[in-house]
Amino acid sequence: MKKKLLWLLPLAAILLTACGTSSGETDESGTAASAPNEPKETTIYLVRHGKTWFNTQNQVQGYSDSLLIEEGEKQAQLVGKGMKDIEFTAAYSSDLGRQRNTAKLILEQNQHDIPQITENIGFREKNFGSFEGLSNDDMNIAVAKALNLDYPEDSDELWDFLKEQLTEEELANKVAEVDPTQTAETYNEMHQRVSKVMPEVMKEVDAQGGGNVLIVSSGGIIPIILESIAPGEYQGEKIANCSVTTLTYKDGKYTIDSIGDTSYVDQN
Fold first, then answer.
1. pLDDT score of 236
2. Is residue 213 a contact partner of residue 42, using CB atoms and an 8 Å limit?
3. Whole-number mean pLDDT of the chain?
4. What is the largest CA-CA distance in the chain?
5. Where do runs of H (alpha helix) occur along the chain?
6. φ, ψ dihedrals at 70, nearest 5°
7. Ranges of residues in the chain whose predicted pLDDT is under 50
8. What is the per-residue pLDDT for 155?
9. From edge to edge, which strands make up the β-sheet containing 41-48?
10. What's residue 267's pLDDT?
11. What are the Cα distances from residue 27, in Å, to 12, 15, 34, 232?
């Protein structure tokens, strides 16, 4: 009888070990193991490009491009230094040089392996048609006149005035309406372009296991990106040069953590 019991003890130990392993509760180190189908989490750092020459000259800057000025390069470097300890699994910009170079300068400060920058035209700024390269005042005055508004003369006051009078959608459509060549994007055209880009990006990032993602875009298109993934969350917050908007993506849903954060560049 004793011999039979001694033979059963090792068998019971084997069965107990097998049960513990198959339950998925612990790994070899004794740490609780993750459920195999647990949703992956991604943190997205959505950055506006640094200041450009067109920005300093009050020129319309959409699909047309303009070089980063020294201040814009420094802004990107400051953002990079502030994010140097973040390990990015992916990085994106459009094919516009001001966005691509901002992303490059940010990543150059990073302490981890640097991902290749993937270009996607969905992150391009708005297309302002024949207003591209002209004074912002020319475009804004054309909009104000078409609306028969008594508008202020100062450039900044005029822009703020129009933003108070019109929604993002109304302003974009009015610019397209008054464009003499009728080549400026309507809001619907921009929204269709932008609504495709985030699902494309998240599909690629999910395939890599989630993580942290850097995206560099432009001040006019970032609000439309936000509206496409989290309708109603953007409330007109300023998107300054090299400001950072932070999002969390998990289980097919986006959470906006901050919009237009300038704390990285304000440290200067």
1. 87
2. yes
3. 88
4. 104
5. 2-22, 53-56, 70-82, 97-108, 136-146, 155-165, 168-178, 187-207, 222-229, 263-266
6. -55, -40
7. 1-35
8. 87
9. 117-119, 88-93, 211-217, 41-48, 244-250, 253-261
10. 74
11. 21, 17, 9, 43
pLDDT of residue 58: 94
Binding-site annotation, residues for substrate? 48-55, 98
259-263 contacts, C-beta under 8 A, 24 or more apart: 259/226, 259/234, 263/82
Residues annotated catalytic, as ranges: 49, 125
CB atoms within 10 A of CB 208: 13
Under 8 Å between Cβ of 136 and 159 = yes
| pLDDT, tens digit, 9 for 90 and up, residues 25-45 | 444 444 344 445 566 899 999
* Helix count and strand count (H, E) for the chain: 10, 6
- Its pTM stands at 0.84
243 closest CA partner among 213, 217, 212: 217
Strand stretches in 26-131, DSSP E? 41-48, 88-93, 117-119
Tokens of 172: 């974009």
User: Could you give all domains of the chain from N- to C-terminal order, each with its CATH number?
Assistant: 42-125+185-261 (3.40.50.1240), 128-184 (no CATH)
Query: Which parts are annotated binding residues?
Result: 48-55, 98
